[in-house]
Hints:
Layout: E1 10-24, E2 36-49, E3 56-63, E4 71-75, H1 86-94, E5 98-102, H2 126-152, E6 158-164, H3 166-177, E7 184-188, H4 194-200, H5 203-211, H6 217-231, E8 259-262, E9 265-268, H7 271-282, E10 308-311, E11 314-317, H8 321-332, H9 346-362, H10 370-375, E12 378-384, H11 393-406, H12 409-412, E13 416-421, E14 436-437, H13 440-450, E15 456-462, E16 469-476, E17 481-484, E18 495-498
Helix pairs in contact: 2-3, 4-9, 5-7
Amino acid sequence: MIQPPQVPGAEVLSVIGVLRQVEVAPFPPSPSKPNTTIEICSVNVTLSHMGVNDKVVVSVWLPLPDKWNGRFQATGGGGWAAGTFDLLMGPAALEGYSTAGTDAGVTVDAGSADKWALKEDGTVNYDLLENFASRSIHDMAIVGKAVTESYYKKPANYSYFYGCSNGGRQGMVEAQKYPDDFDGILAGAPATYWPRWLTSTEWPQVVMQSEKVFPSQCVFEAFRKAGIAACDKLDGVEDGVVSNLDDCEFNPFALVGKKVKCGGESTTITLAQAWVAKKIYDGPKSTAKRVLWDVLPVGAYYDGLANSTIENGVPKIAPWVICSSWIRSFLKKDLNFDLSTITYADMPKLFQQSIDEFDKILGGSNPDLSALKKSGTKLLSWHGLADELIHPQNSVKYRQAVEHRMGGGSEVDKYYRLFLAPGVTHCGIGVNDGAAPVDTLKVLERWVEKGEAPDTMPAIATDASGATTIFTRNLCRYPLVPRYKGGDKNSADSFECAKDFGSHH
């Protein structure tokens, strides 16, 4: 019998447990084998917050007692979904963790908040937004740990949070607001600075719409590859990966007049297309011509934020759904708003409005980690340098803000470490040019349980199937960088973590 957990500020409406077989699909970067079936006790706790007309589900999966590893792992969401449920809970349960996910009382639609963002009177539903922003992850920690203890008749020895993207942001919020919930927090590619970051992701669409130029993904890929070629050697080794993003200066105009093969046809890159690429890299500017936010790093794929489509023979923008929902629902408060009307001049206004209205509730970027420092909880974060949705500068900015606030890098390293992964996409999902981190949670566990603070994080680059390893790397803890020492460039042993890339620029 599972006891109903006590959740401060909320009433538990129901606790339903069933024994069930679940099929676990492999999900990167978790090490699970394809499609294994496991038996679990699945418990759904439904709760409602006082004075809020909400219904929040926290789902807890419990491996059978002889399979439990004594640890609890809460899991994060992605996009507008607060939880990804089976996607992350399956691999966690397979590895022996009791594990949880939550829907935060919003929909599980990762692509859109349109169904819940606004109340019937057209104003923002701040109660549900607060659930999504922070409250529900805290609730999930309380519920997940209580259900775990009730089922196994003893508390988990250690509790962890694991998430990427919005899940990474949730981890950062836990570190900032509720650091006692977990012993260790793993935050991949965190969507911190949400109002600034998410608004700025509309920029590539505004550029294409304003210039009335819509390059095909094939043409964009030519710019992406040229960018890598231009900056690849800045780190001292030519390996098809940009590691030294700071010194990378790519000039898209160098491609004007070059021919590329697209769908069997030969096409010539135009000056107008180069302008679009250049403007996208430059990012949106304030009225004072200051860059508001970094949007796309050199080497990242364009198809996330710079997609377009053809309707009746006419090219049209195809905005990234997560961003268009943000602008429609939260900024314009109009579900029918036409995003193709946004101009260059509108961008700084939208950017400022985002900050003014939503930074307090949804920023996730408070640099004061003194409560985390005191709690003994460890925060481990990583970010791909070729992230096509959340610029890695997001994570670097936050880390620098924390150092500034908390007294320098070596102090901060005691409880919060950041690792950058050259050539790796958003959360390492999809095709990576670089080596994506593996066994990230194990690295965190060694830090939490054995006091082994990580200086490196193991990473591998695979072929498109994911089955064959092409090369290995050890990601370096920020601000150190992977300097090539000589030898086989496919081996992690040929690199050392150094203060800079050396003298080969």
